[in-house]
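Hi R.,

Here's the chain you asked about this morning:
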Amino acid sequence: MRRLSDQVRVLVVEDDPAISDAVLYALRKEGMHADAASTLAAARPALLDATYDVVILDLVLSDGSGFSLLREAQRLEDPPCILVLTSRDEEVDCVAALEAGADDYVTKPFSPRALVARIRAILRRGAPGPDVAPPVDAPAHASGKGLEVEASTRRASYDGRELALTKIEFDLLAVLADAPGRVLTRDQLVEKVWGSAYALTPRTVDSHFKSLRRKLEAAGAPDGLIETVRAVGFRLRESS
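And the predicted structure, written out as tokens:
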């Protein structure tokens, strides 16, 4: 991952020319290097031939599903951050994208300016180097019955089975592991994981938790390890 002082390179994979042009304009106005591809056929060689920090990916393209490119990107030696664009308002699609490795998603219609803010937030979370603050206020190591969270290596496991978490999923789990049994509101989670300048709907936060829970349960964690406190937020069960 590049430092934020370097020029950020972004690949926009979108088959609607109006949307693609608006996004390219917003990115270039912010000093980012931005390329575009309108099909999977054009995006694949671009992704392999150039080093991109971020890929903005539409899930529905004229020659296939964006999910295929999302999975291919995860197999790269140094995968870019993936921000998914979707006109589908079904939560299942958003959760599926997160489980497949997307770092975040935006539902159309959206503001190009807000999209740029999300890209910068994603890069801040992943930027290396001692001059960059850690993404969350979390302990160096947290553990419970079966659950292990290691902040320095950004690795988490349950009963020795490593969890393949996205940056956001790891950060959410680390924040909860720092305060087992304590209820954290959605606003508190957004503040700690995304930052105060980040505007998110409750549904977006819930989608990330659905993906995180599925991965925990697939590793053998009990149902309800992460509890939803209705109309308030989430907590990690103390007995875990």
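Residues 1-5, 127-135 have pLDDT under 50 and may be disordered.

Let me know if you need anything else.
M.
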